[in-house]
Design goal:
The chain is built from six helices and twelve strands. It is an alpha/beta fold. The chain folds into two domains: about 70 residues, no CATH class; about 170 residues, Metalloproteases ("zincins"), catalytic domain (Zincin-like, 2-Layer Sandwich). The strands form three sheets. A five-stranded mixed sheet has the order 1-2-4-3-12, covered by helices on one side. Strands 5-6-8-7 form a four-stranded mixed sheet. A three-stranded mixed sheet has the order 9-11-10, covered by helices on one side. The longest helix is centred in the middle third of the chain and has 31 residues. It starts with a strand and ends with a strand.
């Protein structure tokens, strides 16, 4: 095993990492987790200098992954097991009260009983199933609200997508495929309206540029003059999401490999 090494990243951070050599590795592999940081797996025959030079060539990838992990690191704490009694959806200016109704059966569902009230029914003594039912309800509410919002912004900007998907991701608010299909995170509903609008415009601009080059940011600023400030606010937006809206994380957070 080679000694540990460190790398200086473009944003000024210094990162220590472990180098492991193995006869089974055919090429250099970088593995990162939010809990353990960066581990470099190198094939035998590479010198320490060669390894550090190869790792240095991956600075941008390492920086991007660290930023993602920083945004969700607070989720590694012990999960909150309490069922929510009420919650706000700032994106829609809505407040919802949650009532739990024990009924026969082992499954749990959630439905809108009336404006501002959700009924969770079934085996409601199982708190995790209750929260899973509320997450499914949240995805449905996001589809109902974000789809017309995106259509309105599309008409306003002249930018259009081919299809909208609603997902529940841990580290991504939205994405746009090469065929202009947009995916949005249902947890956007927990964010202020101006941040949600920024994400929607951001993804619509990816129908013009599927990257983050200067051309992309120029397009974005054309449609959202506050894009630079809003982009900075998005870095801490994950902290606005209640614990129940995230599925329980395993002891070892999903790894990112290069």
């Amino acid at each position: 095993m080679m000694p540990n090494a460190h790398i200086e990243l473009p944003d000024g951070r210094h990162l220590d990492y472990e180098i492991r050599t193995t006869a089974n590795a055919r090429s250099l592999r970088l593995k990162m987790t939010a809990r353990d940081g960066l581990t470099v797996i190198a094939p035998k025959g590479l010198s320490e200098r060669q390894v550090t030079e190869l790792v240095a060539g991956k600075r941008d990838w390492i920086t991007a992954r660290l930023t993602q992990f920083d945004e969700v690191r607070h989720l590694l704490a012990e999960p909150n097991t309490a069922r929510p009694q009420a919650f706000d959806l700032p994106a829609l200016a809505e407040t919802w009260r949650v009532e739990y109704l024990e009924t026969k059966g082992k499954t749990v569902g959630a439905r809108t009983d009336q404006l501002g009230r959700i009924v969770v029914y079934g085996a409601v003594a199982d708190h995790e199933r209750c929260k899973a039912a509320l997450r499914r309800w949240l995805a449905r509410r996001a589809k109902e609200s974000l789809e017309p919002w995106l259509e309105s912004l599309s008409a306003e900007s002249g930018l259009s997508c081919s299809h909208l998907n609603i997902k529940s991701q841990r580290t991504r608010w939205g994405s746009c495929s090469v065929d202009a299909a947009i995916s949005l995170n249902c947890k956007l509903l927990f964010l202020p309206r101006d941040l949600v609008r920024y994400v929607l415009i951001h993804e619509l601009c990816h129908t013009l540029e599927h990257n983050h080059t200067s051309r992309f940011w120029a397009h974005l600023r054309q449609f959202e003059s506050r894009s630079d400030a809003l982009h900075g606010q998005m870095r801490g937006a994950w902290k606005l999401i209640p614990a129940w809206a995230h599925p329980i994380m395993s002891d070892k957070m999903k790894e990112a490999d290069f």
